[in-house]
Each structure stands twice: as C-alpha cells, then as structure tokens.
Amino acid sequence: MITPILPTYNRAPLSFVKGEGSWLIEADGRRFLDLAAGIAVNVLGHAHPALVAALTAQAGQLWHTSNLYHIPGQQELADRLVAATFADTVFFTNSGTEACELAVKMARRHFHDAGMPERTEIIAFEGSFHGRSAAGIAAAGSEKMTKGFGPLLPGFTHLPWGDHAALTGAITENTAAILIEPIQGEGGIRPMSDQDMKDLRALCDEHGILLILDEVQCGMGRTGRLFAHEWAGVEPDIMMVAKGIGGGFPLGAVLAREDAASAMVAGTHGSTYGGNPLACAVGNAVMQIVADPEFLDGVCVRAGQMRQKLEGLIASHPDIFTEVRGSGLMLGLKCKAPNMDVINAAYGQELCIVPAADNVVRLLPPLNITQDEITEAITRLDRAADTLSSSG
Ligand SMILES: *Cc1c(COP(=O)(O)O)cnc(C)c1O
C-alpha cells in the first residue's frame, strides 16, 4: 500500500527534532554532527540567532502580500545581490529548479526579442543536476531523472563533462546558452578548472551565446568566495542561486546582466510566493553575514584545515577512500567501499554526510563550523572507516 508521504525518497531511519549550530538532535536524544547541512542549505548551521531574530521579527509584522505590491525586504535583498555580484537585476524564486525554469525562459526570450528566434538550444552536461522541474530534468538529461516523463522539454544537448573540444563542436547557429555548474554537486563534486571556466566565457563571447551558471549548490560562500565563478575571474550572463541563500528558509533567485534580462518585461514571468517577506527577511540576514569578506576568508581557513585532515584520513584508510575533491567547504570523498556503506557507518558514529554520483560522499558543513567540530567530524569519519575495514 502506498504511504501517506509519496515514497520518492529512500530515507535514513532518523528523525531530527532540533538543531543547534552544526548539531542535529535526534528524537531519541542522540547528537549528530551535521556535515549534510540540509544538502548545502544551512550555511550558518541550525537556529543561528541572527536568522531566528530576522524571521521572528518579520513573522510578527507581515508574512505575505504577493508580488502585486512592493516588498521592501525583497528590494533590499536585490540591492545587496546586485551590489555584491556581476548582476544588474534579480528575480526571486522558492527553489533551485524554479530558478532553472526562469534561466531557460530568459535565455530564449533574449534571442527572441533580439530578432534571432531560432536560437533556442541550450547546451548542458552529463552528470549535471538542475532540479526536478520540466526544464530541470530536460537540462540534466539523465535516464534516472527523465525515464517515463516524456515528452521532455525540447532544445537541450548534452555533452560529456570536461571535454572542451566537444563543446566547441556542439555550438550551432541555434545555440542560445551554455548551462553549467562550476562544481557538479549531485554529479560527484566534480569541479571545473579556472582555465576551463575562462575558456568557456571566451567561447560564449566569440559566438554571442549566453553563459548560465548554476550556483545553487556551490554558491553563497560555499567555496570561500560569495560565488564559485569568482575564483576564475569571469562572470556569467545569468546565474541560478538557491539552497544557501535562505539558510534553511525556501528561497532561490535568478541573477542576470541587464543585456541578458532585458526581454523579461512586465507579464513575462511571475511567482506567487517568490521573494515573499519572510523569505527575504532571512535572505537579508544570511547575506549580511556570508557576503562579508572576513567571513569568506574564514571559510577558506576552515576549508584548508578540513582538506588537510581529509588527506590524512585517506592515507590511513586507502581501502575505503581514494581521493578528496572539490573546493572550499564543498568537498567530496571518492570511495572504494560503496558510498552508502560509508554513509551508514557515519550514521553509526552520529555523523551526517551526503551521497553523490560516482561513488562519492559529500561533506557540506555549515560554513561557520568550528575548528573543533572539524576535528570531531574527522574523528567520527575515521571511526566509521574503521568499522568498515574490520567488517570488510
Ligand atoms: C539542489 C540543486 C538544484 C535544485 O534545487 P531545488 O531547490 O531542489 O529545486 C539545482 N541545481 C543544483 C546545482 C542543485 O544542487
């Protein structure tokens, strides 16, 4: 018999009832160190006082009005994002996949209004993840996400990850945009090199193509810069953001340059909830902390500590792990043992980590995790690996 909750997830037998910083408290009282952070969402951990204060203050004032009216908190958050990034304009969504929908619409409408309506094709990449909406699954293109859901939204081409020659060859007179994650998250923490990012930007410029970056997972301070593309010194035309921007409150955004966005005039897009007062109150509180250069420097320091300890962990468990990859606090351990065995062993040590494709486990801690908590996490991972070695 089907369950009251549509059974689309294989859930761990854990029910968390409270969160404190980097810790989750299970219904039975056990304290788990949280290196999942709601899949890279809780960038400031759980129950951060500034976020709780912002949300509760707004909750006592006004929850929702719709976008029929001006929303002061939304204006403030858009101003912050425009000031801190390449973007000239922002549209707020509730999730990453809705950001994908708009990114695709925006790119197509741009060329439509520019007198090039034939330019509708979007080049995307194998192993990518852009969410579960119609555009999101068409963009990712994998059998796992699209099987049985056809007819899929047309106009997507999929190329192998990291093959620049294939990319150059795939561009046609119908290409509108290239859509890519600077670091594939679900795909197994697979980063693009800075040089590849520069080459990609140059290729887009050469052919007049829009560059859409999906920074839903790697953005919002995760790599130690506000957005991952900043490391390569290039800028996208359109960027998808979600996850970390709400710190745990559902919020997403599409950021864009004026030229890319200018066809999106009144009536072309909308959202009942997008950028509502509650979401933007939290988003502003997150931005205030995370966009601070000192905070981002701290992320780089903690990332260096974590990476060094992970290298040590791999050296002492070559039978379980083979390499560490990623950037900042978006780290992946490539496993020799099945990744789900590693994750279950970690649960046994009261540690939450996340699976990814390519037999990788992801470590996506709160960006304000302490040095002691990093040490504790590695100790727990080490013990989890011990239990696998002795049972294997
Ligand atoms: C999670 C994710 C999405 C989808 O976000 P939702 O909020 O789940 O719709 C899109 N792109 C990337 C890179 C993601 O990690």
TrEMBL record:
CDD domains: OAT_like. Binds 1 pyridoxal phosphate per subunit. Its cofactor is pyridoxal 5'-phosphate. Its EC number is 2.6.1.11. The modification N6-(pyridoxal phosphate)lysine is found at K243. Pathway: Amino-acid biosynthesis; L-arginine biosynthesis; N(2)-acetyl-L-ornithine from L-glutamate: step 4/4. Signal peptide: none annotated. Pfam families: Aminotran_3. Pyridoxal 5'-phosphate binds at G96, T97, F129, D214, E215, V216, Q217, T272. N(2)-acetyl-L-ornithine binds at R132, S271. It is found in: Cytoplasm. It comes from the Bacteria. GO terms for molecular function: transaminase activity. It catalyses: N(2)-acetyl-L-ornithine + 2-oxoglutarate = N-acetyl-L-glutamate 5-semialdehyde + L-glutamate. Keywords: Amino-acid biosynthesis, Aminotransferase, Arginine biosynthesis, Cytoplasm, Pyridoxal phosphate, Transferase. It is an enzyme of class 2 (transferase). May also have succinyldiaminopimelate aminotransferase activity, thus carrying out the corresponding step in lysine biosynthesis. Homodimer. Belongs to the class-III pyridoxal-phosphate-dependent aminotransferase family. ArgD subfamily. This is Acetylornithine aminotransferase. The gene is argD.
